[in-house]
Design a protein that fits this description.
alpha/beta; about 15% strand; single chain; five-stranded antiparallel β-sheet; about 575 residues; 21 helices; Rossmann fold; 4 domains
Length: about 575
């Protein structure tokens, strides 16, 4: 029996006509023929003859190069050139920024890097992770301005912590001319319902993460299922925990957004699983397996080290070559098999051997190639302050020494020792960041610090409020800073401790007359120490905390210095 198809014949799967491939082999089986079909570099499959159909030369189509490629045929050179010309006229170029002067901002080159990456991104998804203070809000505004210059943006959603709602509205209006509405509470429900009934009406809204992650808000979004041209999520690291409603919100937004931006200054400090989860929310079709992700990013450490060596003055080509030489031996072959990698290696090798002197344009091109070889470069961008330090004024600290009194020094040292012991005993990873933050509070206002410490012991957690980290560089951050200010549980009890409300206390610095501590709570300090430091919490201890919390509901709470020193002594 002669075969119907020969190697090289284009075929399609009868049940899935869009799935087309090329016959690369055949095997006689029980009087019939089974064909091996090549679909792509990653997909081959075998089918009996009756499950395939021929993709004939004369099949109907529009005759474009894309149509011919689908049928495994090639266009003529003239037709292909004409097709490219039409496509360039039809679609704006990715390498051209049409809104370059379309904002009222100072033009800083690094702030255009995200928009250029997004325009060249096949997913229209991007994680912007610039360090604190480099203007991620401005970069997001530039992206909006550019996308709006290419096609009108009728529906845009900005999701951010509640404390940043007005900041986003003001920045987008004053710098980019976009009018957004800040929505809270019942206004969110009404606006979504109105938008669902008037699909052509522009909708640009800013809503807090705390509002949208609520169960009723999630149900409303899923019921009306509004599509958005752009979704921007600020402080996106709050979405990284897979069991949370914030994470579910991020997953849902990814299904209704044509373009989505995640902004966060702390992705690399969260650990690989959390970083992976953020990328999974953005591009689930590429980042769907943690083990594969870890193999995928293996070359990046070597590429980054090689890039830093090439950027050195003078360039350290020998060091760069040593880093690049390690990449072919890694688990993933993705980078090593890229033709650009081979070209970069040859350029660095020749420069290291003194066979070639690179001009400035050639050196810039090499740096660009190494950067683009990063396996996350298409969905991730990060600028560090040290890379653009010349654009910012240098900070110079002029310390003003203040002498603590003996009691103040004892309190300060006791709290520092307690934080260190929590890290040593429980391995909670609070690190230098939490310690420094508590010490800053102690140096600023002892009564306020006492209130916070009282709250820490009652709750059994080390906690950071978002406002406490605004001016702290993310390089020091190794704990979760959430919209819900809880970072590390120090108690084994699963039930949360009662929340206490505190009235304002005077803060005029250590030892001031206005620093009046409230009466010491009736529960003995030593009992509260055992509650916070012991994994086993007795029923009596829990009861003591509850009664203590109730007694402090309506009065200000400040731990006396001499009592607190004993409280946190080891």
């Amino acid at each position: 029996m002669s075969p119907t198809y020969e190697p090289g014949d284009p075929v399609a799967v009868r049940a899935k006509p869009d799935q087309q491939g090329v016959v690369i082999g055949m095997t006689p089986v029980d009087g019939g023929m089974v064909y091996e079909v090549w679909f792509s570099r990653f997909q081959k499959a075998s089918y009996p003859e009756h499950q395939l159909v021929s993709v004939a030369d004369g099949a109907e189509g529009d005759g474009s190069p894309l149509d011919l490629l689908r049928r495994w045929r090639f266009a003529t050179v003239e037709d292909f050139r004409a097709f490219l010309t039409i496509e360039r006229l039809r679609h704006p170029l990715a390498s051209t920024v049409y809104s370059y002067l379309g904002s009222r901002t100072e033009l800083l080159p690094y702030q255009f890097k995200p928009v250029l990456k997004l325009l060249d991104n096949p997913y229209s998804r991007l994680l912007i992770a610039d360090e604190v203070g480099l203007g991620k809000t401005i970069e997001a505004g530039i992206v909006l301005t550019e996308l709006h210059a290419r096609a009108p943006l009728n529906r845009v959603l900005v999701v951010c912590p509640a404390a940043l709602l007005e900041k986003w509205r003001s920045e987008l209006l004053s710098r980019f001319g976009f009018e957004f509405t800040v929505l809270r509470g019942a206004a969110v429900t009404q606006t979504i319902r109105d938008a669902a009934s008037s699909l052509g009406k522009p909708l640009r809204m800013i809503v807090s993460l705390e509002t949208l992650r609520r169960e009723e808000a999630m149900e409303l979004l899923q019921e009306y299922r509004l599509d958005f041209d752009v979704v921007i999520v600020d402080e996106a690291h709050h979405m990284r925990n897979t069991w949370t409603r914030a994470n579910a919100l991020g997953e849902y937004l990814g299904t209704v957004a044509d373009t989505m931006l995640f902004l966060t200054a702390t992705p690399l400090n969260l650990g690989r699983p959390d970083f992976f989860e953020l990328l999974h929310l953005l591009v689930p079709e590429e980042f769907d397996d943690l083990a594969a992700f870890e193999a995928q990013i293996e070359p990046n450490a070597h590429l980054n080290a090689a890039l830093q060596a090439v950027r050195a003055i003078p360039p350290e080509f020998e060091s760069a070559m040593a880093e690049l030489a390690a990449i072919p031996h890694l688990t993933s072959r993705r980078t090593a098999d890229d033709p650009r990698f081979g070209d970069a290696v040859e350029t660095v090798r020749a420069a290291a051997a003194g066979e070639r002197t690179l001009s400035r344009p050639e050196l810039i091109a090499l740096q660009r190639t190494l950067s683009e070889l990063n396996t996350l470069s298409h969905v991730f961008t990060r600028t560090r302050k040290r890379e653009v330090q010349t654009l910012f004024p240098m900070r110079r600290a002029d310390p003003v020494p203040v002498e603590f009194s003996p009691d103040e020094r004892e309190f300060y040292d006791a709290v520092s020792a307690w934080i260190r012991s929590a890290n040593d005993r429980y391995g909670v990873g609070v690190g230098a960041f939490v310690l420094i933050n508590y010490q800053r509070q102690l140096a600023s206002c002892l009564p306020a610090a006492g209130a916070k410490l009282e709250d820490t012991v009652l709750r059994g957690v080390l906690r950071m409020d978002p406002g406490e980290v605004d001016d702290v560089d993310d390089e020091n951050l190794d704990v979760d800073i959430g919209a819900d200010p809880v970072s590390t549980n120090l108690l084994s009890s699963s039930s949360p401790s009662p929340t206490t409300r505190r009235s304002a206390v005077g803060c005029a610095g250590p030892g001031s007359a206005s620093s009046r501590p409230a009466p010491t709570p009736s529960s003995p300090p030593s009992r509260r120490v055992s509650n916070a430091s012991s994994p086993q919490v007795s029923e009596r201890s829990s009861s003591s905390r509850s009664s203590l919390a109730r007694s402090n509901t309506s009065s200000g709470v400040c731990v006396k210095r001499e009592s607190a020193a004993g409280l946190f002594a080891s």
